[in-house]
Specification:
This protein is mainly α and 85 residues long. Helices cover 69% and strands 7% of the residues.
Length: 85
């Protein structure tokens, strides 16, 4: 092998390695973003479940139905309203 060819191969290996490192860093950033989005979604689901549970308990405590309502966009669908109407 000539020296020029060895130099070109080493440069190509260097360039491939740099591209690999850049892709790996981007993959890590994407994974971190995915984890953040999943955590935010989980927090939202927990709040929705908590609000639905509280609404259901208020309904039961005021003599309403024991059938839990479904929380849709902040409103309870199904069951009776907490004031018994």
């Amino acid at each position: 092998m000539t020296d020029d060819r060895v130099v070109r191969l080493l440069e190509e290996l260097r360039d491939l390695h740099q591209a690999h490192v850049a892709n790996y860093r981007q993959a890590l950033r994407n994974q971190e973003e995915s984890i953040r989005l999943q955590q935010a979604g989980l927090r939202r689901v927990r709040w929705i479940l908590l609000a639905g549970r509280c609404a259901c308990l208020r309904c039961r405590g005021s003599g309403g139905t024991t059938r839990p309502g479904v929380l849709i966009g902040g409103f309870i669908a199904g069951g009776r309203a907490p004031d018994g109407q």
